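Quick look at the format.
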Amino acid sequence: MESDSHPPSASSHASDWFANFVGTVIALMTLTLPLLTIAHYSPSQGATWQSPPYPIQGLTNNQP
């Protein structure tokens, strides 16, 4: 069975390489930029949780 397709030319191979390179750069930016943005805008020291100055009533409290 004969195929009508021709083997890829040298310019087609070069454009495939360029497309793969651009896709890899976009993928890396998609993975790293959100992490860098979160790291940049998050506080340098983690905020510690402080208990409220009033007592918290439990969920099992049966008061009306």
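Next, a different chain entirely:
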Amino acid sequence: MSVTLSHPSSCLVLLLLLFSGHPSASGTSIPDMVNTAARVLNRARRAKLAREFLQAHNDARVSSGVPTLEWDRDLARFADKWAKQRKPDCSMIHSGGPYGENIFWYRRKNMWSPEKVVTRWYEERFNYDVKTNTCASGKMCGHYTQMVWRATTAVGCARVKCNNGRGYLVVCEYDPRGNYEGERPFDQNS
């Protein structure tokens, strides 16, 4: 019989099967091993999510002719902390923090990928008039302009599942922030 460990959770199952009922030589209990394995899996999921968010942002920025971003763990922690505060109600309320911020909410059984979320913000480019530096009447474009703000160099994002089936909330933080009144996202000196 062969076993394929293509999914991280299959590693956890294999560990449980191998060591169930047998304490290790070092005295480590099964619950300790399970907790360690769960932490490793969570770290791997967060790292994958980070790569996907960063790649999606950088694809949008390259298409818009601005430099790419770096992933910032402190920004991701800030986004995660704020998103977790919003878990009870899943409200799209801005943190008021020191960074630029994009928020996205969805209520679907299927998870929206980071690429799909960022693409939704990027689609706001059709609502942005470069000549007048304004959004089309009644339309949003601030998510897009924050994403492509030339002076922004770093991003960090988080996603949480809200309580009581209220959906999922995505928060991305940007440093330095953008969207300053009277400034243009693509200006060199913004």
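The first strand starts at residue 70 and ends at 71.

See the schema section for token definitions.
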